[in-house]
Amino acid sequence: MTVFQQIIDGEIPADIVYEDDRCLAFRDVNPQAPVHVLVIPRKPIVSLAQLEDEDESLMGHLMVVSRRVALDMGLDNGFRPIINSGADGGQSVDHLHVHVMGGRGLQWPPG
Description:
This protein is an alpha+beta fold and 111 residues long.
């Protein structure tokens, strides 16, 4: 069981900023920007590479929630949604998640 599943199950506390029946969003415990929120699906999907065709609507929902969270957090000048996939992609928790980052100018390339 991943740490994200434990957050979903209420076993580990989190600073939740958004929640519905399909996903939840919470502040990252190790923020890399002034605003750094993680948006995760309740459905346990390991990574972007393991998506099924049936997950298309869920992924669209995660993007809409990412936008909502960013705007609710005052990121009117811009923000960056990031999905890392797999070890080489920088994914550190085996549960699909969207990083919503902003609150300062973000550089490119990121890493």
